[in-house]
Design brief:
The chain is of the alpha+beta class. The chain has six helices and five strands.
Amino acid sequence: MHHPNFHLIDQCYAEPFGQEAMARFLAAHGTRKRATPLPAEVRLGIPREAFRNAWDLALTSRAEYWEGYAWHPECGALPFHHAWCVDPRSGAVWDTTWRDVEGAVYLGVYVPTERLCATLNETGAFGILDKGVGFEHRTVADLWGWIDPTRPAALRDRDRRRHRLTL
């Protein structure tokens, strides 16, 4: 899926804000998506509360919690750590934090609800991949240990889909 702003997401691989480990992880395992308008039944969340907004939506709807990097035209030159939801039926991004998602792009990973809740209970933080919470406390190894980077991408994708369906 080509989008004219995906080149901005690539900037996250250039070690922004000391997040090189997360950027490398997302480069290997993340999925690129572009923003879509919210359906009428999905309400906007609290501004600047992306992780909590996505968490709330994932727990109260059919949406899946995703986390990674995002870029929005009104939020500066570089992508930053962000959370959003994805409708598992359509693949549409549901970002309840940004009022106008026109031009926004995302690079992230699906986080199972069970892992999300367990991490919130353990750390008290809504974000799961955050430096100092996720990568430095082996959360990513726990979350993504079933991904074997030596296997062909097609097989990893199949396993990822199979894993998601069993949760």
